[in-house]
Amino acid sequence: MRTYSYKGYDRVGSVRSGHIEALSAKSARETLADQNIFVAKLVESQSQHGRFPQYLRCMFYRELAALLRSGMPLVPALGMLLKTPELQAVFVILSGVRDQVREGHGFARALDSMTTGMKSFETSAIDVAERTGTLAAVLDQLATVIESHQQLRERVQRAMIYPILILTLGIVVAFVMLGVLLPRMQQITGDFLAMPALTRFMLAVSRGLFPWGFVWLCLGAIVVILLIRKVLREPSRRIQFETFVLRLPGHRAYRYLLASRFAHTLSILTKAGVPLVEGVALAGRATGSGWCEERAEAASHAVRHGQNLEDAVRGIPPLAEILSGWVAVGEAGGDLAGMLDHAATRCDRQFDHHLSRFLTLLEPTLLLLIGGFVLLITLAVLLPVFSLTDAVLR
What we know:
The protein folds into three domains: about 1-45, Ubiquitin-like (UB roll); about 55-120, no CATH class; about 140-394, no CATH class. It is built from 16 helices and five strands. By secondary structure, it is mainly alpha-helical. The chain is flat and about 100 Å long. The longest helix is centred in the last third of the chain and has 58 residues, at about 335-394. The strands form two sheets. A three-stranded antiparallel beta sheet has the order 2-1-3. It has a two-stranded parallel sheet with strand order 4-5.
């Protein structure tokens, strides 16, 4: 049986669409014809691919793990999840996965073939867990890691809302004062008095920005951002940029973020039974850092040739200082996955600490800079007024 998506018309001409299971496309058309539906478009689910968002993937992993733990086989469990209202947005993906599993393909391979954006470490962990009979436990762990990544992203986004609002307000105030108040003040004073140096400077800035200077400035910023993104697509350039970032003040927050992702991923892969040779390389990719990925590949080759994991991790500069001690304790105590979990939790806390400290400094700094700029513009407006008042009183 295969799942098909259809779109057609009933006998009164109303549009009908939905999904149907049948042995073949011909059988699906015949079944729909018996229901008085004329099929205009019929597409097999397996031929369609789509994006599987992280929050839906997390929900899917959790619910599938619960069904598998209850003793339900994989195919019926997937069929039951197709009826979940929250997962209807990815119905085509899940139905294609179920059809492939029903035909004898592996669950990991089916999921990877039907989705875009899945991380390689997820596919590897699911593949090994499926072969070792630990699929439910690994799906729960994957959901936990995805949730932690989502929460981290949301914390950063929430934390940046206030600074962005302050910056936006400052830009609006500067736009009004430079574009409206200063030119208006110049019209009022005319040639009655000589402008103070600060006012002349601000007027020059206003003429440079308005009416087209501001537009060109925005376009230039967009072009620079696009060029940077294009350059960073090159692995060598990206690695150079990351090494530069890791030398900047406050770089420890970024190091803790990379270490947390690496430790979480390697812990899951280790529990799933993935060999360390593969696990180290996959965990390096999961960090999202080109530099970590390159060094993790080298560390993976070192482990393959007999080097212990502690020394291999010391060869990954962003992680060496933070994780090598935890790895050494885990190897010595025979509980590497447990130590990696503890290390990831500690790294998460340290990242939160450094992020909070950075934002604590960023917010007053932005306020001071914007307040100082507004003060300069205010003085540029008021100084000629004071001079004009003095001239009139005399």
